[in-house]
Amino acid sequence: NNKKYISSELVSERATAFIFEKIISASVGHNKPFVIQILSIWDGVGKTATAERLSEFLNKRGFSVHMLNVSEGLNSQNNNNMSENHSDIMMDYYKCADYNELIGDVYNSYDYIISVIPAISQGIGNSILITKADISFVVYAANLTWTSADQFNTDKLKNIIKLNLYAVLTSALPENLEEIYGDIPKKRSKMRILIKKLLKRFV
Predict the structure, then answer these.
(1) Which of 14, 22, 45, 82 has the most Cβ atoms closer than 10 angstroms to its Cβ?
(2) How far does Cα 150 stand from its chain's mean position?
(3) What are the tens digits of pLDDT across the range 139-190?
(4) Is the dihedral of CA 94, 153, 11, 191 positive or negative?
(5) What is each CA distance from 174 to 6, 142, 180, in whole angstroms?
(6) In terms of DSSP H, where are the helices of the chain?
(7) pLDDT band at residue 104, thresholds of 50, 70 and 90?
(8) Cα 17 to Cα 196: distance, rounded to the nearest angstrom
(9) Is the CB of residue 28 less than 8 Å from the CB of residue 200?
(10) End-to-end alpha-carbon separation of the chain, Å?
(11) Cβ–Cβ < 8 Å for 175, 169
(12) How far apart are CA 16 and CA 121, in angstroms?
């Protein structure tokens, strides 16, 4: 059984590369910054991890990135653990009409802006702002059961965000990954590595 030896790093890299292809395609002829929005129906499905991987992917390729995690601010507020900076982000998020206004003077300093939006199940805090992103990715956990609430909130997003709206699946079963990404090299267990070394001595 090789499932647990599938390289999660390689899977993440390939998934992020697919996202990057969508971004490059949508950003042709677009002036900087290009605003990327990461959303979800529920908390805990991997929005922040997706945004961080994408930010790292872009940075490695020489692009400047500003990441704004509005979702983190809201979660801190719900846990009564919100910093002053997060408080300011949340106040601005609810009242700003576009990302230029939300981010301020440094807006034009970056190639890409990645905005992580609070879970839609908690309500769409700013239905005007979320239409201003250049591309939006809705993160779903593949290991969760699809419900009528998922469908309702997805339809609501589709009615608001008309262009460049895509889905990202996290927590997919390993046996399904090669159908999407092709052959995925496996991590070798210590036992397999040891056996291979021993066999080489007799060749």
Answers:
(1) 45
(2) 18
(3) 999 888 899 999 999 999 999 998 999 999 888 765 555 555 555 455 555 5
(4) positive
(5) 7, 11, 11
(6) 8-26, 47-60, 70-78, 84-95, 99-103, 148-160, 174-181, 190-200
(7) confident
(8) 32
(9) no
(10) 26
(11) no
(12) 25
Of 166, 98, 94, nearest to 137 by C-alpha is 166
* 35 vs 72, residue with greater confidence: 35
Cβ burial, residue 15 (10 Å; 0-12/13-18/19+): buried
CA distance 39 to 140: 9
DSSP designation for 42:
S
| C-beta separation of 77 from 164 below 8 A | no
Q: How far apart are CA 60 and CA 193, in angstroms?
A: 31
Distance of CA 182 to the CA centre of its chain: 21
For residue 40 the two structure tokens come to 């979800």
Cα 80 to the chain's mean position, in Å?
Answer: 25
Q: What is the pLDDT of residue 131?
A: 93
At residue 5, the pLDDT reads: 46
Band the pLDDT of 13: cuts 50, 70, 90.
confident
Q: CA 83 to CA 79: how far, in whole Å?
A: 11
Phi, psi of 149 (to 5 degrees): -65, -40
